[in-house]
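Protein modeling request. Please complete all fields; requests missing the sequence field cannot be processed.
Requester role: graduate student
Desired output: 3D structure, token encoding
Chains: 1
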Amino acid sequence: MTHVLTIAQALLACLQNALAAPHIAPIAPEYVMLRGGAEVTPLLGTGDDECCRGLGWVRIAGKSGLLEINDPGGNGLDGCFRQRRVVTLELGTARCAPSAPVSGVPTEDQWAQAVTLMDADSGAMEEAVCCLAAMRDDLRLGDLAVREYTPFGPDGNCLGATMLIDIDTNVCC
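Delivered output (173 residues):
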């Protein structure tokens, strides 16, 4: 297992804890998971709806080297490439969008409840980042930077948001 996946799993454990009770609408730990790919699309099946049961995730959104080829110091004579990386992880949550009978639209109270839940999920993401930061020494992490918080939806039955964090780390040779 790579160091990047170890960091992602640590952040996942933090997010699972932050989305558990006493969160205003807890998500069971088995529905807060690692997801892969270019983006997370909550799934809908004939017997299950990831949005309406609640979904949380951590996704490895990318990693890049910190230094350019021509930086002073080069790669050294030992043949080891530069080890420092910026790892970008995405945290996300998806919930059921407000709905109403066919003859109407969602009420102001339903929207207020949905926005309050999105705010609580945002707080849980922040809590997870703080939890990860507390493990900085154990995980050999450098600086952490919270980037964009981006709401999405309503799309289909889903409403949610993602948060990106950048982590300066060492991938080890």
